[in-house]
Amino acid sequence: MLGELVRVQAENGDRLSDTEIVTLVWHLVLAGQTPTNLIANAVAALLSHPAQLAAVRADPALMPGAVEELIRWCGPTLLAIPRHARQDVELHGVTVPEGAKVTALIAAANRDPRVFDDPDRLEVTRAPGAGHLGFAHGPHFCLGASLARVQTQVAIAALLRRFPGLALAVPADELRAPDPGTWRLTALPVTL
Fold this sequence. Notes:
The chain is mainly alpha-helical. Helix content is about 45%, strand content about 5%. The chain is built from six helices and six strands. The chain has helices spanning about 1-10, 20-45, 50-60, 65-75, 105-110, 145-160, and strands at about 85, 90, 95, 100, 165-170, 190. The chain is globular and about 55 Å long. The chain starts with a helix and ends with a strand. The relative contact order is 0.16.
């Protein structure tokens, strides 16, 4: 794909600017990381929550809803892309001036007790209700969300089916990478 972008720019320089090419490449790189990190996070979460793992193993029909819950509970996107305030706005007694950069904490929104009952609990049978923001919202909703959902469902189902004794080889709290913007693992050591 990158070769095609460069070719198009070389043939018709005003069709794609350098900024547009860099932006497209950056989005492609990020897009590939989302399902990879989501699958790893989801497997680690299930392996560290035996009752939830048992529920998904016992009823594979739970997988689509379980993936939605896993996206909410341990999705890789922690922060929204910074935006700019369109006008002065007051939030909890603090004025955010027009033009100020604003970043939404997606992880906090996905754990909001006003939206989700017992939000810090992983519950693969959680009834669908208010949607999570794991893929953002509105005009900024992730174009690859459907693909990431399907990839995660297929990967987890295949992994659990193929390795019924799958277990974490290290404590779950040793897995997370120190990254303030993305929930990702440094590794996922398991026993089969």
